[in-house]
Amino acid sequence: MGSRRQTQVSETIAHLAGDFFARESNVKALITVTHADVSLNFKEVRVFFSVLPQTSEGLVLKFAKRARSDFRHYLRTHTRLRPIPTVDFLIDLGEKNRQRVDELTRK
Fold this sequence. Notes:
single chain; alpha+beta; GMP Synthetase, Chain A, domain 3; 3-stranded mixed beta sheet; 4 helices; 3 strands; globular
């Protein structure tokens, strides 16, 4: 997994990403940040999220990629992290697959 600090930083960034999407996204979709993975040197973070309805995934991903620098600024003002990590946003395919399995097992 990683260090306790890595876990804490990951959870904090995931929480702040959820807040950021709730405030800044103008896409009419439910965006759920599932988790964040911080690199061992804390210089990079990948934030994973799921989107409902799934037809809005493309729009949300475009928004997220465009908003990376805004989110870094948001992190700078809401945490004491230094340096602020480089951010990438990705659709959480694991969550998407889990939802599909749930859907199939209900039938």
